[in-house]
Amino acid sequence: MTTPQVPLYIPSQVCSTVGKDPVATPPDACMDLVQADLRGDGVSAPDVPANAGLAQVVGDAKQKGIDLKIVVLDQNPAIDTPLRDIATEVGREHPGSTVLVLSPSFAGTYSPTFDRVTLEAGQDIAKVSGTPVVASQNFVTELTTSHFPWTPFTLLLVVGVAAAAIGTRMLQVRARKTNDAEKPVAADN
What we know:
Oligomer: single chain
Distance between the termini: 81 Å
Structural class: alpha/beta
Low-confidence stretches: none
Shape: elongated
Number of strands: 4
Number of helices: 7
Strand content: 5-15%
Mean pLDDT: 88
């Protein structure tokens, strides 16, 4: 049984990424052009100086073992959710890729490799990083930075608390036995 796919909303702002008029071109056609753009160097972004280093960021990420795809919109959609939809659409077309979609104020991500918490941490840093190149570099840095291992720490803490509870109970039982053993002796005196 397959899970039904939720329809994605691709905003018209994606058309400006590939130099098309959002009014005259349907977003699906623009999305096809974005996908074609990504097949080259892993980047689909308006040809402006601020985006010049994005291909280098993709190359650096590849050296770190991350198959990164970057899409940059020059305008914000009304809400940030469509950026994740664009990232998901790109991820379907490029299986195994980690996708970062940036707009001036928002970011959206998709990855089958990284967990959602790590992606959202990188996404949060990317949203406030200024230029798309710096935002992308910061995103990759967040993905590759080791974080405190909370799961083993939590397990160790739970085991420690359980051991302390068991130890305390054993001491209570031993103290009670000692106290019970001393009572008859005290009664004979």
